[in-house]
Design goal:
Largest sheet: 6 strands, parallel
CATH architecture of the largest domain: 3-Layer(aba) Sandwich
CATH class of the largest domain: Alpha Beta
CATH superfamily of the largest domain: NAD(P)-binding Rossmann-like Domain
Protein name: Bifunctional protein FolD
Family: Belongs to the tetrahydrofolate dehydrogenase/cyclohydrolase family.
Helix content: 40-55%
Bound molecules: 5,10-Methenyltetrahydrofolate
Organism: Gloeomargarita lithophora Alchichica-D10
Number of domains: 2
Shape: globular
Number of strands: 11
Strand order of the largest sheet: 1-11-8-7-5-6
Pathway: One-carbon metabolism; tetrahydrofolate interconversion
Subunit structure: Homodimer.
Oligomer: single chain
């Protein structure tokens, strides 16, 4: 068997095309384009690439970017004040605080300063609570992007065994809840899971969101499983995920590449969340952006 590639890059490009077309029609009627404020503190080089990617994608589809880079010594109070200004700014539909923040800042407290209806990262307690309840709300971009990618390829989830390796608040936990909401039987695995391979071999849907190169070997994958690689590892040879791509491709039925899989969907989902927030603010009827 050779796994089919879940092509996040192409799907993301098509979604962006649909957003661009719709916004070209709607923004003049509303009288303004959607706005996304990105707050990036310090000079983490990985963040530089992500923030650049986000701003470029915003420009492509017709979303105005606000915010920018702030020095590493910016205080908690200054950042809270900045977020409050964006909360009130009528041109801003989404506010994103790029993580990680410098260690002396309290990122959770800052995230809770964002008004929930502009929380395009889905990390405010109110949006996390809605996720837990299964109510509509802004959803974290990477998990929502993964679900959109699986949905696009019509991967069945109901009744399937899903194993999520990793339990972060940014990816593992919310993705597990979304899979559960789609009627998968979900198991969370993590660094204290004793027999990881024994567990992952039972997975029809295997998600790795850890950040360790080579973590998922072919022996850990059930033949025919769907494998989603959320890992991001920078190596001398370039960007790689958690999954032994070549080995697992011979065992799985579907597999996401890194790059070109989940990362590309994350950015597209951020734009979708921003447009969703804009649409709600102006009571617009939103089309189904399906890619
Ligand atoms: N508040 C917050 N929200 C986030 O959503 C968030 C964050 N902080 N901090 C960092 C992580 C990471 N992240 C990625 C975004 C795009 C790619 C992406 O576009 N990846 C491309 C390749 C990029 C490259 O080549 O460097 C791909 O996989 O094809 C990856 C990872 C968002 N994150």
């Amino acid at each position: 068997m050779t796994a089919q590639i879940l092509d996040g890059k192409t799907l993301a490009q098509r979604l962006k095309g649909q957003l661009q077309t719709w916004l070209a029609e709607v923004s003049p009627q509303v009288g303004r384009p959607p706005g996304l404020a990105v707050i990036w503190v310090g000079d983490n080089p990985a963040s530089a690439a992500y923030v650049g990617q986000k701003q470029k994608s915003c420009a492509q589809v017709g979303i105005t970017s606000f915010g920018g880079q702030f020095p590493a010594h910016t205080s908690q109070g200054e950042l809270a004040h900045l977020i409050q200004q964006f909360n009130q700014d009528e041109r801003v539909d989404g506010i994103l605080v790029q993580l990680p923040l410098p260690a002396d800042l309290d990122s959770t407290k800052l995230l809770h300063t964002i008004t929930p209806d502009k929380d395009v990262d889905g990390l405010h307690l109110v949006n996390l609570g809605k996720l837990l309840r299964g109510e509509p709300g802004l959803q974290s971009c990477t998990p929502a992007g993964v679900m959109r990618l699986l949905g696009h390829y019509q991967i069945p989830l109901a009744g399937k065994q899903a194993v999520v390796v990793g339990r972060s608040i940014l990816v593992g936990k919310p993705l597990g809840l979304l899979l559960l909401a789609s009627d998968a039987t979900v198991t969370f695995a993590h660094s204290r899971t004793p027999d990881l391979a024994g567990l992952t071999r039972q997975a029809d849907i295997l998600i790795s969101a850890v950040g360790r190169q080579g973590l998922i070997t072919p022996q850990m994958v059930k033949p025919g499983a769907v494998v989603v690689d959320v890992g991001i590892n920078r190596t001398p040879a370039g960007l790689v995920g958690d999954v032994d791509f070549v080995g697992v491709q011979a065992v799985a039925s579907y597999l996401t590449p890194v790059p070109g899989g989940v990362g590309a969907m994350t950015v597209a989902q951020l734009l979708l969340n921003t447009v969703q927030s804009y649409g709600q603010r102006h009571e617009l009827v939103m089309p189904q952006f399906s890619g």
